[in-house]
């Protein structure tokens, strides 16, 4: 076989294994504290063990699986109490960024706001399919909006918090309705900020964040309950 084709096929198998395992983990298909055996997963997904091993390493980096003492992996259980606390921190950081220019008698950086608005208008015209990876675009929106307030340190802290809650926020982007609504709400927020109407921006952001945490908690709780009831039995 042509080495180039072989490498491409391996890459495709690895991406397929990663995408499918992530989907199954997010909806709670695997039991808690069960060993995610490479051989069994490979048979389940119709790939070799190597793509499964690579996928599990990527999922560990995203905190969707925990590493076992012997080097294997098991599904990670979301800590919903910690997540709610981190959402509170996130809200405080974003509110501080949003209101900072008004408190200082300045305005958000107009070029940054316009660039952000144009990027999300483009997403409105070509809406992505539901995908947990949309969380990265969502995080980028909020960090860029915070950067436009002129406080880079605050935006950096927001990025750290977003990384901590990413494991459950992926649950928010599994349906077309949530992707579409997120884009609409982001545009509403950035347009209000762009016109200097921070009262409206504040109100829209509060509604946006409230909806997000409600969806995330409901879906994460449902997935956790399914994990606890599952008897899939991956043991090898």
Automatic annotation (TrEMBL):
Ranges of residues in domain HTH gntR-type: 11-78
Keywords: DNA-binding, Transcription, Transcription regulation
Database matches in PROSITE patterns: HTH_GNTR
SMART domains assigned: FCD, HTH_GNTR
Pfam families assigned to the protein according to its UniProt record, in alphabetical order: FCD (PF07729), GntR (PF00392)
Annotated protein name in UniProt: GntR family transcriptional regulator
Provenance organism: Luedemannella helvata
